[in-house]
TrEMBL record:
Keywords: Metal-binding, Zinc, Zinc-finger. Signal peptide: none annotated. GO terms for molecular function: nucleic acid binding; zinc ion binding. The keyword Zinc-finger applies. This is CCHC-type domain-containing protein. It comes from the Eukaryota. It comes from Nymphaea colorata. InterPro entries: At4g02000-like (IPR040256), DUF4283 (IPR025558), Znf_CCHC (IPR001878). Residues 17-26 have a biased composition (Basic residues). Pfam families: DUF4283 (PF14111). Residues 285-298 form the CCHC-type domain. Residues 1-37 are annotated as: Disordered.
Length: 303
């Protein structure tokens, strides 16, 4: 039987094995969210994107954006009540506002509320006067904010970023705290609003420090300081050094400025003229009072 022509030889067996087809498994490292503009970040500032196993369902695009990945528990839903909720909850449907047109996509009120629900717990930030890199943002946030929970970052383009928080305490701290300053530049923080577009957005409000140089000491009283600062903007809080009268060279008050209105270079305290400074705001024209350009570049000056 050994010399039978029908018996397979050793060479035939090796050739047969080499021609056998195997189904190559997809490596788990290739199964990720595939998104370069959405990142999940732990409280210590480290980005994480755990790859699911082969038996786990791959997250959809909606899952990746909202954080509702099917392979790990979702964040507890919470709602922060504020006076700006009307910017998020629109009870009127598009079909009631406009006529149906060929180039118009309309949504009913219930659908709009459902689409906007995942972003209620998010804030929009932008650094004034300086580019804020996407990759450097987690480390900067770690230094600036001491957060208790995790958060997610979404790049909105044109140096705007959306931050979604796991815990309401972190959301409130970032929204109500500040002013936040990075490298001598103010970090603007506001609630997410529906139909937000980076290219068409205009920053109209800013929380900033307002020093009053050489303010007479008799005005270093909480009520007096708040009345004086209210002429500049909405008072947020007083500087601790100013409130405790530990420094007399200038008083410092945190206010919310309306950048769409002219900024005052000074104001009168009876017959005394008091100068007003705007800490961290370099582009202020004290000819027209507008933010965004210097006096020498003001278009309102008649040559």
């Amino acid at each position: 039987m050994e010399n039978s022509p029908d018996a397979p030889t050793l060479g035939d067996e090796v050739l047969k094995r080499t021609k056998k087809k195997y189904k190559r498994a997809r490596p788990t490292s290739d199964i990720g969210d595939g998104s370069s503009d959405v990142a999940a970040v732990s409280a210590d500032g480290a980005m994480f994107a755990p790859a699911p196993s082969m038996q786990e369902r791959i997250p959809s695009y909606k899952d990746r954006l909202t954080g509702a990945t099917p392979n790990r528990p979702t964040w507890t839903d919470w709602k922060y009540e504020s006076s700006d909720d009307f910017l998020i909850d629109e009870t009127v449907s598009d079909t009631e506002e406009t006529l149906e047109q060929d180039d118009c996509v309309s949504f009913f009120a219930e659908k709009k509320r459902a689409m906007r629900q995942p972003w209620r717990n998010a804030l929009i930030i932008k650094l004034l006067g300086k580019v804020l890199g996407y990759k450097a943002l987690p480390s900067l946030i770690k230094q600036l904010w001491v957060l208790q929970g995790n958060y997610r970052i979404v790049d909105l383009g044109i140096d705007y970023f959306l931050i979604k928080f796991e815990k309401m305490e972190d959301y409130k701290q970032v929204l109500d705290g500040g002013p936040w300053v990075i490298g001598g530049h103010y970090l603007t923080v506001r609630q997410w609003t529906s139909n937000f577009s980076s290219s068409s957005d205009k920053i109209a409000n800013l929380i900033a420090w307002i020093p009053f140089p050489e303010l007479p000491l008799e005005y270093y009283h909480s009520v007096a300081l708040r009345r004086i600062a209210a002429k500049v903007g909405r008072v947020v809080h007083l500087d601790d050094t100013t409130a405790n009268v530990m420094r007399g060279s200038f008083a410092r008050v945190c206010v919310e400025l309306d950048l769409s209105e002219p900024l005052r270079p000074s104001l009168w305290l009876g017959k005394f003229r008091q100068r007003v400074k705007y800490e961290g705001l370099q582009l202020i024209c004290f000819y027209c009072g507008r933010f965004g350009h210097k006096k020498e570049d003001c278009s309102m000056i008649i040559m």
